[in-house]
Amino acid sequence: MPNLTAAAAGPSSFDVLVIGGGVAGTTAAACLRDLRPRLSIAIVEPETVHHYRPGWTLVATGQAAAPAMQRPREQCIPSGVAWIRAGADRIDAEARCLSLADGRVLRYRKLLVATGLVSRWDQVDGLAATLGRNGVTSIYRADLAEVTRTLVADFKGGRAVFVRPQLPIQCAGSAQSILYAAADLFRRRGLATALSFHVDGPALHSVVHYDRTLAEVARQYGIDLQLGSRLLAVDGDRRTARFQRLDGTLVEQPFDLLHVAPPQGPTPLIVTSGLGDADGWLPVDRSTLRHLRHPDVFGIGDCCTASGSKTVAAIRAQAPVVARNLLAAIDELDLPARYDGYSACPILTSRERVLLAEFGHNGQMLPSFGGDPRLPRRRYALLKRHLLPRLYWRMLDGHLGIDWHAPLRNRRLPTPVITP
Ligand SMILES: Cc1cc2nc3c(=O)[nH]c(=O)nc-3n(C[C@H](O)[C@H](O)[C@H](O)COP(=O)(O)OP(=O)(O)OC[C@H]3O[C@@H](n4cnc5c(N)ncnc54)[C@H](O)[C@@H]3O)c2cc1C
Question: Quick one: CATH architecture of 119-264?
Answer without folding.
Answer: 3-Layer(bba) Sandwich (3.50)
